[in-house]
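During the first year of the project, the team set up a workflow for recording each protein of interest as an amino acid sequence followed immediately by a discrete structure-token representation. This format lets reviewers and collaborators read both layers of information side by side without switching files. As required by the reporting guidelines, we include two representative entries from the current panel. The first entry is reproduced here exactly as it appears in our internal archive.
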Amino acid sequence: MEKIEYAAMDVSYILDSLNEQQRNAVASPAQSLLVLAGAGSGKTRVLVHRIAWLLQAEHVSPFSVLAVTFTNKAAREMRGRIEELMEQSFGGMWVGTFHGLAHRLLRSHWQEAGLPEDFHILDADDQLRLIKRINRTLQIDEERWPAKQCQWYINSQKDEGLRADNIEHFDDDYTRTMLDIYKAYEEACDRGGMIDFGEILLRAHELWLKNPQILQHYQQRFQYVLVDEFQDTNTIQYAWLRVLAGAGNQLMVVGDDDQSIYGWRGARIENIQQFGSDFPDSDIVRLEQNYRSTSNILNAANKLIAHNQGRLGKNLWTDGAEGELISLYEAFNEQDEARFIVDRLQDWLNGGNRRSDAAILYRSNAQSRELEEALLRVGMPYRIYGGHRFYERLEIKNALSYLRLLVNRHDDTAVERIINVPTRGIGGKTIDTIRQVAREHNCSLWQACVEAVNQTLLSSRASNAVLAFLQLIDEMSKACEPLELHEKAAYIVKHSGLVQHHEKEGGEKARARIENLEELITATSSFDDPGMDEEEIDVSASTFLAAFLDQASLDAGDTQAEESEDAVQLMTLHSAKGLEFQLVFLTGLEEGLFPHKMSMDNLAGLEEERRLCYVGITRAKNKLYMSYAESRRMHGDVNLCRPSRFIKEVPNELVEEVRLKTTINRSHMPSRGGVALGHKSAHGAEVPETQISLGQRVAHGKFGEGVVLNYEGQGSNARVQVNFDAVGSKWLVMSYAKLEVLG
């Protein structure tokens, strides 16, 4: 795009602080404009200054401007920055989210939209309850067609702009059933004057299509439309924008195809890719100068994302420092990975840095458990950004409640939590009766269930449901008696029905819950009660289970850092988008974990995973660590891991491999393709003041032979982690263990 000359000196203050690319975007005369804004390139700044330019240089009325964002926070920030730049308030300007602006339209034109004046919005919980009532009316089998699955289907169709009448079932049983529910749901909403979140945009889109005079009014009013995070728009959002923009309005969209990471929730990367075709007279401006990261970090991100096809193309650069190389750590396992990260964090904090300037990023929520435990061990405050700590997550609490009942049937909290999870026909009225029996007999809820069944205090149906629950717990308890701790957990997760229960939610949330349940099995398999020494390891299985449950409660009781407290940030890569940190750890870079195994069977899924890695890399301002494990315990089993392809896609010269007590520049390594260098490169690091080295084979009087994987402390007080051939991983205190070094 040609450089634009600026004649209006009285508005130069709007452009003075911008670089050339930003100025071209802010003052562009183009009818339609795509601003391809790379990570850290100042896109919000460009949007704010573009609006100021329209108002000040082109004398546009603030009433003619519509700015669309994805969050209320972003909308408030944009409005505040406009008013700060212009030094005046603009109350008449429409700045808001898609849903907020569409809702405003429906409130103004409720009659034309076919709504009652006092229509109200259903939140997700209200919507789910309504669908459950409809399913009962239609006599839909809840086990076969769970309400959450129906909810997901309805919302996804609305995101695609489809009513039930627009969809053909083609004699497919699933589609036919979903359409029956969808139609009944639409009728119920119409009768009750209710709309859900998906309906807000769909109804607003239909409002314009069915009422040309209303559309014409808003097209004449909003002649300047600006959109943030355009790569995250779904089908109905883009359709809404295209209708509003029409043929004559100025449309400026700002986004980054390389940061499109929400395909799993309906975002269509095709919207930004085909913008030039949909608006053939549009221009494109690339914001490539990055104000966040060092040159090495940006070069790594550029080389990685270049492996994706069909990109609109840009190359991030900075006139800042080259910076440190990216550090790559090959861990023995997930525990060693967590220990390494905490050690590096402590070194960094000793340099006078703040905890909140450091972030640990992971692909799957389940990865947080090992990291949380490592941080808790050293007493380092941390905060899970946008989520719950591992032992506070709903699915984990459910599974732990089943395990608690194996130890103690009279745990009322556990009974209350899972008596109807998964759904087994024990409703609120039945539970109220059981509580009343417990009060009258001064007994536990478990005993009250027994009494209520024996004394026929419940209806026949409710009594059978409660009896089935009691029998399930007793049967699982008996089956679990001879099992090891991790086998108990695996049995409970499988036979309680929790996996199937959470699978019904559908989408990414269901997958995350199931991965967390699998991680719970891993937690039990590696559990070693710190209150027992090796001589006491033969305690009963039930006592060991109780010790694990106590430790889980203690970990959950160690609450997250307060909002005002300086704390290390832990988050998924999806949660990290839009954030930046001085120090970033990008963890679990292994095939099947990142890229995720569910995304590796098609090109679109794999490319979205690569974009997610690109987002992770570009969160780092000064220092980036990447790590992977040679082996990782999953579902209770130790799996050998292959390094992620994303590691190999970062050039050698930008990376240094970090070893215990050593740093090796990867460009000097003999094999570029074989990033996994095996144990040979890590062997030899000694446990301080002992005769033991990591990677060494040792023998124990009870557990047999194994390999030393990790250690804490030094001398006789050191604890070493040994992966025994027969019994798996154990932490042992050197003064008790009496390990014999082999070979």
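The second entry, processed by the same pipeline in the following quarter, appears below.
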Amino acid sequence: MPITDHEGLDALCASCGIALGYHDIRGQWHEPGVEVKRSLLAALQLPVNSDDDIRHKLEAAASRQWRHLIAPVVVRRQNEAPLRLTLTLGINQTDKAINWELCTESGQHRQGEWNPGAQAAVDEAVVNGTRLRQFEVVLPDFDEVGYHQLSVKADNACAARASLIVAPETCYQPPALANGRKIWGISLQLFSLRSQRNWGIGDFTDLHATIDILAPLGINVLGLNPLHALFPHLPENASPYSPSSREFLNPVYLDVEAIDEFEHDPEVKHQVTSREFQASLQALRDLELIDYREVWGLKLQVLGALYQAFRQQRLNPDSIRLEAFRQFQQNGGQDLFKFALFEALQASFHRQDAAVDQWQKWPQAYRDPASEAVARWADEHGDEIEFHQYLQWNAEQQLAAAQENCKRHGMCIGVYRDLAVGDAKSSAQCWTEQEDYAPGVGIGAPPDDFNSNGQNWALPPLKPQSLRDQAYRPFINTLRANMRHAGALRIDHIMGLMRLFWVPPNCSPSEGTYVSYPFSDLLGILALESQRNRCLIIGEDLGTVPDEVRHALESNKMLSYRILCFEKDWHRGTIKPPADFPYYALCTAGSHDLPTLRGFWQESDLELREQLDLYPSDESRDQQRQIRQRDRLEILAALRRENMIAGEDTNESREGSDFSSELAQSIQRYLARSGSMLLMVQLEDLLSQTRQMNVPGTIAEYPNWRVKLSTKLEDWRDQVDLEGFAIAINAERDN
């Protein structure tokens, strides 16, 4: 039966947060088609195939806010005191006292009563034949920050419970950054580090050594790529932004030889120190690109042996190390157990049949984590599950030690971690929490200056209502996991707290539209976890970002993300002067998705995109080259205005592609002189590397996330004047 009630369809979409249109980065208006709207509604478990379907679901949506005596979760800011709540009562309940009891997170109990009949209702409706009224009530003299439980009882029978989350006014600001102090740091891709001792990929011990080398330069921050767990059985799936779980770490970063059992197991030690094994390691070190398959193969082989050695400690009930592991398991609870269970199941099925490379291909009985088959398997394969808990435990220990090393060096922030926007559809997270995700839909971005075709990252979005139904538990857990052992957290695509661009199944990104999320609630929780974990928040706000998001970043004392070539006076086309950069911002010359500074200047990225046929047309290619030429000239002009380079000649042919270490340092000094709180220098730029880490829009066409740095960390001081660079930057940052 065809749908003719387009107004009703639009009303249903709006009630679910599906945008009926949006402005792209150039201000053009785009509207999703009818089939796109239906597809997204179906992903939200609201399929509509007729006008009657629309009418019934609209009625259900309209009654949603009237279904509960009090909303199941309420998020309020501490500065909103007195805390106001909404009660929904039947007409026969309005003249009676409503009793409430509050159990605070600190263990205190408070109680009282409300008399809603003494005031006017704020709203009224008839739902399923029952007249209901809503009243605003106040929770008196309460502003304790935290997670609390509120119980409400009407007629001594109608009880309701709500999670009451009271959040601080802003996110955490390190005391060292009071009074307008400005600091700087260096960002790196951990996997890209070369060293004389690693196993062909950067690891946590390399991170230690990096801190020892760079901290004395005066940096206060060391930025890392996402450390999320990926897919050991599919080592070529190397993107840290398409993880299996954002709550757990990638064991590939483990320094195997730094694990306690290695030192005390002569058999494993003999294996690793053998000539054959060392030759394999040296071959991996010598490669220009990371061979993830071989790296994982060697590491898992030895890690399995170390776990077997660790199991022997069960025979010693007084083992301090075993006791610490048991505590780690207990603290991780069901989330850790389910993740390890997934890892063990996936490894087992893949060993039996390499074609079974995602949980959607597992035998049907195992696709449901609550099934009897899964429970039986878990009972019979406890050691296989525990092995993956053992890997997580050691990874946590090694990352924690790196952050402690930052503190020993006096860094006021230390490690800054990076949180990806979502989990892959074949992820552990999507297996364990299937009902929370919109099936078939991909998170992405509309066409913009980063990608003229738009993007579909193939990450299934969390359903907004599922977040609310769980009192935001998935969001809270993800924040806590990524704030551990970190002084700052960069949140990729911070706009996702307000809205995400959903691309329906079998559609191009240009056909997608935005879906809204409970922005105010998520911001409040972010502020609460930031303060509790003493973690500075950086919001990556590039692309098509509403003004509301950038205002929220500033008012919540989160740092915006500012890249030099995008910081322009768009009327004049000139680069902003340093003084015009906002204080609550991270400024930088580039990112993991952009060319290195040298590559940008020499247009190697544009040449690469042409080779890979990533331009939609010759006109687009030529336009990008013209923009790049203008950008170079504008950067040079900006440097001259700040007296950082000499001369007045703007001849394009002479200045077009010349690049020197002096020019590179001048650009970094320009950013260092800015008013922004934090300057981040990419390690690739410090080492004058040309090749970029990731080319958006490519998968197999380019070796994304495999490029190593050209210089071993032991040789950095010989290859680069680190001290001279640091003196120049510190002079500009000193305020």
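For the second entry, the following points were noted during internal review. The longest strand covers residues 130-139. The chain has three domains: 6-65, 67-167, 175-301+388-733. Both points are flagged for discussion at the upcoming steering committee meeting.
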